User: Which sequence fits this backbone?
């Protein structure tokens, strides 16, 4: 053993240095704490709530971000809309105790929330295996910010300007909102794209998210956590995806078994309130949606007393 350690001392020292460095970087967690680095929507939610990681939640994908105006709402829900968020993400978040949902969980389901194959943001915290090095997991963003730092150091030294040595462009910290209405030809192209990618789907294509829903409902029962579900608006100027009636039936059967209240807004909003097919316009549609959800939740609260 001693001979082995002596022979490989340099390699072992190099490995130990890398492991220690990665542990220190992981403890710093620049993807969350430094504005030099890209932020995903989960981190943005924490950032805008002073890193609060517990409370009542309105969870869903970007349709929630666009439609629910938290500062105008009287429901006290934290807007936890995630770009490409699915129920499998919510399950992972709860399993890993990255956010502690309390008092009420409102789940928004739109035409994309349950599609297993839909690509999501790989930087969400629950995707990182415990054994995977932090620097490797976020290597693309480390490279981007590192390249910027090197350029700034070079420029500052070249120009003898100390203010430029450590300067950087703060990464965008707000979530994407949706203003105005896209032209009809763009909406038609997007509908054609959705139809080609998802229109042929059926139950096997959302089975993982159905299983995640089952898990979430059991979790809520065990923790005495009230769950409510909102079917998010779809632009009725275009045909509803063919898989939606079957998906709704599968979901509703599960919700009924747990007596979960449901607000079905899937086909109730005028096309003039939409930015595109799945996102409400911030100025026109979102205020209407926020008021309607508030009124519904308030009516549920009154009826439960």
Assistant:
């Amino acid at each position: 053993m001693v001979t082995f350690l002596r022979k490989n001392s340099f390699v072992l020292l190099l490995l130990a240095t890398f492991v220690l460095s990665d542990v220190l970087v992981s403890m710093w967690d620049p993807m969350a704490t430094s504005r030099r680095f890209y932020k995903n929507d989960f981190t943005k939610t924490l950032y805008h709530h002073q890193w609060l990681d517990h409370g009542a939640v309105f969870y869903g994908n970007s349709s929630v971000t666009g439609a629910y105006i938290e500062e105008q709402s009287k429901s006290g829900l934290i807007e936890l809309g995630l770009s490409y968020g699915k129920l499998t993400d919510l399950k992972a978040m709860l399993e890993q105790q990255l956010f502690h949902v309390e008092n009420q969980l409102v789940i928004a389901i739109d035409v994309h929330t349950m599609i297993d194959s839909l690509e999501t943001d790989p930087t969400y915290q629950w995707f990182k295996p415990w054994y995977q090095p932090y620097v490797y997991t976020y290597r693309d963003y480390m490279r981007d910010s590192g390249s910027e730092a090197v350029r700034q150091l070079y420029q500052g030294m070249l120009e003898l300007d100390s203010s430029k040595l450590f300067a950087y462009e703060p990464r965008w910290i707000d979530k994407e909102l949706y203003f105005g209405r896209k032209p009809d030809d763009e909406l038609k192209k997007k509908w054609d794209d959705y139809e080609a990618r998802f229109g042929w789907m059926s139950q096997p294509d959302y089975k993982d998210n159905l299983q995640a829903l089952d898990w979430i409902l059991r979790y809520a029962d065990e923790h005495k956590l009230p769950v409510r579900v909102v079917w998010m608006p779809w632009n009725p100027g275009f045909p509803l995806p063919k898989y939606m009636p079957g998906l709704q039936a599968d979901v509703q059967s599960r919700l009924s078994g747990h007596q979960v209240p449901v607000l079905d807004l899937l086909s109730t909003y005028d096309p003039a309130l939409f930015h595109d097919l799945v996102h409400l316009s911030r100025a026109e549609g979102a205020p209407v949606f926020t008021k309607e959800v508030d009124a519904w939740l308030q009516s549920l609260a009154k009826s439960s007393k």
